[in-house]
Design brief:
heterodimer, A: 298 residues, mainly alpha, 9 helices, B: 551 residues, alpha+beta, Cytochrome-c3 Hydrogenase, chain B, 2 domains, 18 helices, 17 strands, 19% strand, disordered C terminus
């Protein structure tokens, strides 16, 4: 394992850029949605303004504050840590980095769904219960997809993916990861946890001021991570270099963000008893195709 | 309907009632059959009208007629839309201790209006559980505001009264929704008892916003001023109320309203229906997470709001109705521009509707949710799109034509499935029909005055007036008085539709509860205040409503 100056600089600049632009990407998403809605929409730095405003507000004491604050900061740390690890592992060969990424994301997602449960707010708990069902399906699929990726490519290093030959089965796996990423971002039709008009409000209903600011920011970082992973998996084998793969992924990220925003504007919200079942059906079909393709082209 | 068939129908009613009570007095005026029966025969007469003649209860009301006739009166108003008739059953009650038999077991829809008569006039109902409905819980027990000896501006001191919440045993959790909640756009309170994600029972507390408008109309204002008060009953469909009120007075006083005024009223009523339905469709899309649908419905609606302003001078609360006609005319230039706006709205709306119904989540989630079976809909006498979505083919614009509706040709959309989708489709189709109606009315707009000249409003005349509001039929009942209504009863459509929510919500997924609540397009106003006191294990609620000093 080695980290030379170029890679260190690239890691640092990538992470700094990412951490700065994710709220801007969110503003772009709002702008895109506004355009689809026939509205003007907010300025490009609106999400940053929102976060700044939230941090300027008084810190409100919430019920069960220790647990909430602990899990909230854990969530933020894990979001930033996971994306940092991902970028580092793409550039630097790190032992079993795909496995480590799976573990990190599992902990991150667990923290995300536990957070509303530690509040005593019934609306937040309804949202959390709905999220658990969705995350269970989605996380298992993410786990299986990454396991198959290791199996198909024979690699456990993220940094080795640019050097493998992309097979049709591998491409279908990447497509599965795109869907997993979309669902994890909580956009329509999968925004069932924060469906305020449907009585559930997730954690958002319980937080205010700086604590809400922390959550909003951490959530945006998590969203960026769930977009970067499938983009990297898809384009890495076509670039032939992990540095190019990373830079291309970072360039594609805003485009994907806009595409996801546009897609979300076309859907309504699903329901907790419909969304996981629909997803399971879709994933089953895609997994069947990828396995058949693997067996055919082996 | 020919005169002969009307005679035949009336004879059927009178013979049936005479067979129950041979001394029954009756009078037929306009489209209303007034019958007077003693309270001992009320239940039998109700059973005959509701069950044998297949009528539905429009509403019931009490009236303090001690200064006029020396007793209280109770009125039950039934509707026979197939024959375009109102049947008003009047019962005299003791002036000192007014007690009447309940008809709630025969007509479940009578539940609320009986309790309202109890609250506001002190009429007790035998044979049923009684509870406070309209007045705040802290209001004194023996003070009934609609009695003529109670001044309109009385301000009793509020008192805190405990109210314990007892969820059903099957429920695992209680979810309070309201009075302020993102799913509710006006103050109302629902308590949803859930088991997992399924609603097992629901409790409703409303009337946070009872403002004593009827008392004001009966005590402080003159006939023409009440038009403007009536328009303020609702922030969405206020014009229906002022039209309905004006029509009630015009019917009671037999005022000949100019045809042109009737056409203008119908045009504005349909504009109001379009903007109300577009508003609702947008809200429904938002509740289903389809915000694109929400924004575009309101974008299209904006054209209609501008048109309303162009024709009446206001986007909302038009203020053009008077007893005897309207205050603002529609000239040729306005007609031309109105047609241009309608063409644009129709084109945009058809595209929008196609897109909305193509969204899988919208159709999937509205289908087979919030079901109101036809039989329940009939028992509860629900109205408007709620009734038409459950297969009840009722629309007073067609069945009991008023204003200029007998000059136009239109369809009444009816769907049988009784679910949220059916109610959505009824409203969606009605927008198209309303555009069609406005076009016809503009095309046929007759020449002439817009206001009746020199009319008098004699005292002690009664009339029932109906108007099909966007949410269902609106009813105003008037007994004329000296310079102002002696009794003015308003029954908004939501009043009739809310009890149906209990049926719709039971067994439904929790996530669909807000859409189901919204599917009746509930309409309340927003001038109430509420505060909650925690005291030991009981939750105490004090509502500050009409005429009370804020704590």
């Amino acid at each position: 394992m080695s980290l030379d100056f170029i890679n260190a600089g690239l890691v640092l600049s990538s992470i700094t850029t990412l951490l700065f632009i994710v709220p801007i990407l969110d503003s772009i998403e709002r702008k895109v949605k506004a355009a689809i809605h026939s509205r003007i929409g907010p300025p490009i730095l609106q999400t940053w303004y929102d976060i700044r405003k939230l941090f300027a507000k008084k810190l409100s004491v919430i019920p069960n504050p220790f647990h909430v604050v602990f899990f909230l900061f854990l969530y933020m740390m894990l979001s930033i840590m996971s994306i940092t690890y991902f970028i580092t592992a793409v550039l630097v060969p790190m032992w079993n980095s795909i496995m480590v990424l799976i573990i990190l994301i599992t902990i991150l997602q667990t923290t995300f769904i536990v957070l509303p449960f530690v509040t005593s707010n019934p609306f937040a708990i309804i949202g959390a219960t709905r999220e658990v069902l969705l995350v269970l399906v989605n996380e298992i699929v993410f786990f299986i997809a990454m396991a198959l990726l290791i199996f198909f490519s024979g690699e456990t290093y993220l940094s080795s993916l640019p050097y493998i030959h992309p097979t049709p089965a591998y491409l279908i796996l990447a497509a599965i990861l795109f869907i997993v990423g979309y669902v994890s971002c909580g956009r329509q039709p999968f925004d069932i946890a924060e469906a305020e008009p449907e009585i559930a409000s997730g954690i958002l209903v319980e937080l205010t001021g700086p604590l809400l600011g922390v959550f909003v920011y951490a959530n945006l970082v998590r969203r960026a991570l769930f977009k970067l992973i499938p983009v990297y998996v898809l384009i890495a084998p076509f670039t032939g270099s992990n540095m190019y793969a990373l830079i291309t992924s970072l360039i594609i990220l805003p485009i994907l963000w806009v595409i996801y925003a546009g897609l979300a504007a076309l859907f309504g919200r699903s329901r907790v008893d419909i969304a996981p079942v629909s997803l399971l059906k879709l994933y089953s079909i895609l997994f069947s195709i990828t396995i058949i393709l693997y067996l055919v082209f082996k | 309907m020919t005169k002969k068939s009307l005679d035949h129908v009336l004879k059927e009613y009178i013979d049936g009632i005479k067979s129950i009570y041979p001394k029954a007095d009756y009078l037929f005026s306009n489209d209303t059959l007034f019958i007077v029966v003693p309270k001992e025969k009320l239940r039998d007469v109700t059973e005959f009208i509701h069950n044998k003649m297949d009528c539905y209860l429009r509403t019931c009301l009490g009236s303090d007629e001690r200064p006029l006739l020396g007793h209280f009166a109770l009125y039950h108003i039934f509707g026979d839309d197939r024959n375009g008739l109102n049947i008003v059953v009047k019962t005299y009650l003791d002036p000192k201790k007014p007690v009447a038999p309940t008809i709630m077991d025969i007509v479940p829809a009578a539940d609320w209006c009986e309790m309202e008569a109890r609250d506001l006039l002190g009429i007790e109902f035998e044979g049923r559980k009684q509870y406070r409905l309209v007045l705040p819980v802290g209001w004194p027990d023996n003070l009934h505001p609609l009695r003529k000896d109670v001044p309109y501006n009385i301000r009793p001191r509020p008192s805190a009264v405990g109210e314990r919440i007892t969820p059903p045993k099957t429920a695992t959790a209680t979810i309070p929704v309201g009075p302020y909640h993102p799913a509710l756009h006006e103050p109302e309170y629902f308590e949803l008892y859930v088991e997992g994600e399924t609603v097992v029972d629901v409790k409703y507390r409303g009337f946070h916003v009872h403002r004593g408008i009827e008392k004001l109309g009966e005590s402080r204002m003159n006939y023409q001023q009440v038009n403007f008060l009536a328009e303020r009953i609702c922030g969405i469909c206020g014009f229906v109320h002022s039209t309905c009120y004006a029509q009630a007075v015009e019917k009671a006083a037999k005022i000949d309203v100019p045809e042109r005024a009737k056409f203008i009223r119908s045009i504005v009523l349909e504009i109001e229906r379009i903007h109300s339905h577009l508003l609702w469709i947008g809200v429904a899309a938002h509740l289903l997470g389809y915000d694109t649908g929400f924004m575009h419905a309101w974008r299209i609606r904006e054209h209609i709001m501008v048109l309303a302003e162009f024709l009446t001078g206001s986007r909302k609360t038009y203020g053009i109705n008077l007893v005897g006609g309207v205050r603002r005319d529609i000239n040729e230039d306005k007609k031309k521009q109105a047609i241009e706006v309608l063409d644009k709205v129709e084109k945009d709306y058809m595209e929008y509707l196609k897109a909305l119904l193509a969204v899988p989540e919208v159709k999937k989630r509205a289908t087979e949710t919030g079901i109101l079976p036809k039989e329940d809909a009939r028992k509860l006498s629900v109205v408007g799109p709620t009734a038409r979505g459950s297969g009840l083919d009722r629309d007073v614009r067609r069945d009991v034509p008023y204003a200029a509706y007998n000059y136009v040709d239109f369809n009444v959309p009816v769907y049988d499935s009784g679910d949220n989708l059916a109610r959505l489709l009824v409203r969606a189709d009605e927008v198209i029909e309303s555009i069609k109606i406005i076009r016809q009315l503009l095309d046929q707009l007759p020449k002439g005055p817009i206001m009746a000249e020199d009319f008098e409003i004699p005292e002690n005349r009664a009339a029932v007036s109906l108007a099909e509001a966007p949410r269902g039929e609106d009813i105003h009942y008037i007994i004329t008085g000296d310079g102002r209504p002696y009794r003015w009863k308003v029954r908004a459509p939501t009043y009739q539709n809310i009890p149906a929510l209990k049926v719709m919500l039971k067994g439904a997924p929790l996530a669909d509860a807000p859409l189901t609540i919204a599917s009746i397009d509930p309409c309340f106003s927003c001038t109430d205040r509420i505060y909650v006191i925690n005291e030991t294990s009981a939750r105490k609620i004090v509502r500050i409503g009409i005429g009370l000093c804020p704590g």
